[in-house]
Amino acid sequence: MEPQLTFLTSYPEAVRTQVQSLIAQGRLAEVLATRYPQMSHDIQNDKTLYQFTQELKQRFVKSSPPVSKVCFDGKIHLDNSLGLHSFVSRVQGGKLKAKQEIRISAFFKQLPFALLKMVVVHELAHLREKDHNKAFYQLCQHMEPQYHQLEFDLRLFLTLRQLEGKAV
Ligand SMILES: [Zn+2]
């Protein structure tokens, strides 16, 4: 039976078929390891995550509401049934509140730096755009030109983890 690819439902059939074939050949892990030879990164605690996020915010979305807290959260479960937004992180606080909080799944500690950056960019873009609309993705790409490739790769990592039977 072919795996369901629950993290890739919004991608074209041709892409999904390609991923199915990589999985069938047992090559998904190898492909990701080749694309990301450096799996670890230095952002391993809330303090460094906060600093990194604030630097990006200063550079790209300076006028957006201040972010008071940024942290890793081990309790965010990357549930199959949820979309990327709700499972990787959460922005807390209403739109009108001055204080914003960004929580990033602790899973990102073990992923390549580029993917951590991608999810931080995603959450920073939500300071301006609540929905995943065109303006939202344009802002993501402005902050990280490889955004779409990185989001796809993140979904491949999640698929791999799911196939390995690990909780995501
Ligand atoms: Zn989102």
UniProtKB/TrEMBL annotation:
Domain of life: Bacteria
Gene3D superfamilies: Metalloproteases ('zincins'), catalytic domain
InterPro entries: UTP_pyrophosphatase-like, YgjP-like_metallopeptidase
Entry keyword annotation includes DNA-binding: no
Protein source organism: Rheinheimera soli
Domain YgjP-like metallopeptidase: 94-154
Keyword list, A-Z: Hydrolase
Protein's name according to its UniProt entry: Metal-dependent hydrolase
